[in-house]
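**Reference record**
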Amino acid sequence: EAFRRIVLPKIAAKFTEGNQQEAKPSRFDEGDEPEKLSLEQTVKQVVRSMADLQSEEERMRKTG
């Protein structure tokens, strides 16, 4: 509960803040960090996980 309310917005804020500074392709794209996802993939993952948390929270509220 607290994690969702406090930590997620901070992560999202940091995430968007960092990406505004680095709009151009980073040197990581050349394979320095192969596990690094593209910006689009990362955004989709963040949005998906936030949506999952929201629906989970709603489900918990309904069940008690």
Q: What stands out?
A: The first helix runs from residue 2 to 21.
